[in-house]
Amino acid sequence: MATGTGTTGLDELRERARIWLDDDPDPATRDELRQVIDRLPDSAADLTDRFAGPLTFGTAGLRGPLRAGPNGMNLAVVTQAAAGLVAWLAARDADGPLVIGYDARHGSRAFAEQTARVATGAGREALLLPRPLPTPVLAYAVRRLGAAAGVMVTASHNPPQDNGYKVYLGAALGGPLGAGAQIVPPADTEIEAAIRAVGPLSAVPLGDPGTVLGEDIVESYVDSAAAVVDRDGPRDLTIAYTPLHGVGATVLTAAFARAGFGTPAVVTEQAAPDPDFPTVSFPNPEEPGATDLLTALAERTGADIAIANDPDADRCAVAVPDGGKWRMLRGDEVGVLLADHLIRRGTAGLYATTIVSSSMLRTICAARGLPFDETLTGFKWIVRAGSGADDPLAFGYEEALGYCVAPDHVRDKDGITAALTVAELAAGLKAEGRTLTGRLDELAAEFGVHATDQLSVRVDDLSEIDAAMTHIRNRTPGTLLDEPITATEDLLPAADVLILRTASTRVVVRPSGTEPKLKAYLEVIEPVAEGDVTGARGRAAASLQALRTETAAALGIW
């Protein structure tokens, strides 16, 4: 691989860039790349990074920075990806249209429209969603329209300079558990191979722009989403909401109105889609400060709960008043509340979560005689949990604010129906003079405090993540919080995950699948004696802090 430092390497790099430039269909990125080439040798590091390799198509599809070159999101990369995808579908005789959705990020609409033209150029019908819409609407449309596959152009909650490309499969290729779900191996590697086999982009036939669907597909989604909650349940609830500059507001407010709830108060500064996300450092409700405007609105309006979607509205965050302040509930807390609510509502079937989520759902299911499964991280695995026949999926969640409350509606995480179900639960509790935090205390008294936290380290150099994973594998501690480690599970080569367990703690370490982060998921289980939930929570919090310090040391990052 050329480093761009020697004369020969620099010449090779320049030639590769010029070959790419000649085949790039977008005048804007051609100009961008030409300027980088013209600045050589000063731009050698930049150009080397852009050509460090192609942006790899994996189980999360494509995701990367918006920039010219093969190691970025741009019209050339999208054209190649679309051509590879439609060739892969054709090779498997997959009938049906390709449905395409997009969010409001920079480049999203252009990437969606180019995908449609590649599909029609290959003789496949292309159906575009009518406007920038949430990812769950695309996942719904794949099932509703009997599509061969679906593409969603989004980078979810990544920074504004990123974009991405997610692929969903229809029933024919996805099978009973994966109909309308994201791809899993070996589809990802097969599609990647088909993408690499695409020849010059100038030879990729482009057809008509496809068919832009009407608003009826959105109305159909809204009707189906509203039907997830009990129509006759309590509705007295004041709600504050933010879409975080994303595309969730119009669909969520329509779904709430259709379900009989009052219109949520929406954070004005974040209500309209804005690809620059000007009021937040990172457009992710998990990030510190991202929901400050939301909780301020909730305080001003006397809201009972506050809800945030991420920019493509497939995730849902919930804040509640607690001790005179507003507190964001952890994803595990919301997941357990939703599962408990659905169980008490009589929703039969399998309940599932991931290896990095709280073990409390397992405990609840065991106590209530319900089937449970634990999967690798990601909704592509959650929706395929269990056998599917005897125990169809009833509910799945992951601690990163993803919830699937109605698998027959959307077979993926869905921040709209999750918000509706949280509101249904909160309204029902309010009618009884109770709260979400009170219900969490009741569950803790019954099953013990399952306190969770996350140690997350963002890196500039991905080799730092490899070094930390190697460090903990080579120097695995023998104890955690003075308890002997009773089980060590290394999921390599299937997944880069290490799990450590003691009698009352668990640590799961893995690299993030979508961001340059190393993540350690921490859990402490603290029994509740004589109903003293507050005391148990205090002990668990202290243990979590100590576990955080021990885990950082074991990873070699402190």
From TrEMBL:
Gene Ontology terms for molecular function: magnesium ion binding; phosphopentomutase activity
Phosphoprotein as UniProt keyword: yes
Residue ranges constituting the Alpha-D-phosphohexomutase C-terminal domain according to the UniProt record: 501-524
One annotated GO biological process: carbohydrate metabolic process
Cofactor or coenzyme needed: Mg(2+)
InterPro entries, sorted: A-D-PHexomutase_a/b/a-I, A-D-PHexomutase_a/b/a-I/II/III, A-D-PHexomutase_a/b/a-II, A-D-PHexomutase_a/b/a-III, A-D-PHexomutase_C, A-D-PHexomutase_C_sf, A-D-PHexomutase_CS, Alpha-D-phosphohexomutase_SF
Keywords for this protein: Isomerase, Magnesium, Metal-binding, Phosphoprotein
Domain Alpha-D-phosphohexomutase alpha/beta/alpha: 56-196, 220-323, 331-443
Protein family: Belongs to the phosphohexose mutase family.
UniProt cross-references to PANTHER family, sorted A to Z: PHOSPHOGLUCOMUTASE 2B-RELATED (PTHR45745:SF1), PHOSPHOMANNOMUTASE 45A (PTHR45745)
Protein name: Phosphomannomutase
Organism from which the protein derives: Polymorphospora rubra
